[in-house]
Write a structure and sequence with these properties.
It is built from eleven helices and no strands. By secondary structure, it is mostly helical. Helix 5 packs across helix 6, helix 6 crosses helix 9 and helix 9 packs parallel to helix 11. The relative contact order is 0.13.
Length: about 200
């Protein structure tokens, strides 16, 4: 990956947009996630727009337009980056309450899967990297917190496994890139974690 001014700007925008946010499950600062997703993507492509989209992939979904808008993203990074980000974004208001997130979880995920079947290669790459990091983060957090980690999420661990499995099926069928192999390996590790018997820390 060549470090470019555009990628540097995406790093700055992502850090500003996610300032003060933390991750579910492990409580780490949120910006660690888009940085990790971009690093994963950069192992499999040199496409500047895809790497920028990886850094920005949660902005439209999780950040208020008052902080950073779709219009501003298009101005700063161009329509292709916005298209890739939209492809991996759920339709929800950044101000949605936790109760609303839980209530709408399955509907949002089904729509996400439907959109994934038509998304661009760039969106599929970012999605794969996103799910790789999410699953790895959960596996790592489990080693520290055990079964307690599942309380931080909006649905059951079984439904999360269903979602990751369906995402992997779609990506495997549509994307010809070595990142798919890494995604499938993480899914099996994640499946083992979900299916193992609960035990105390």
């Amino acid at each position: 990956m060549k470090f470019t001014p555009k990628i540097n700007k995406a790093i700055q925008v992502a850090a500003m947009s996610h300032n003060g946010m933390t991750r579910k499950g492990d409580g780490t600062i949120y910006i660690s996630h888009p940085f990790a997703v971009a690093m994963i993507v950069a192992q499999y492509t040199n496409d500047e727009d895809i790497i920028c989209a990886a850094l920005l992939h949660d902005v439209l979904e999780d950040v208020s337009e008052k902080i950073y808008s779709k219009k501003q993203m298009k101005k700063d990074f161009g329509p292709r980056v916005v298209e890739i980000v939209e492809g991996v974004s759920e339709e929800k208001d950044a101000s949605m309450s936790k109760a609303e997130e839980k209530r709408t979880w399955i509907e949002r995920k089904k729509k996400y899967l439907k959109n994934l079947e038509e998304d661009s290669k760039g969106s599929l790459m970012v999605c794969a990297a996103d799910k790789i990091h999410n699953m790895q983060s959960t596996i790592d957090a489990y080693q520290v917190k055990g079964e307690e980690i599942w309380k931080a999420f909006n649905t059951s661990k079984e439904k999360k496994l269903w979602f990751h499995t369906e995402v992997t099926k779609i990506i495997e069928g549509r994307l010809k890139n070595p990142i798919v192999k890494e995604l499938k390996i993480l899914l099996e590790d994640y499946r083992f974690l979900i299916n193992k018997k609960s035990k105390k820390k």
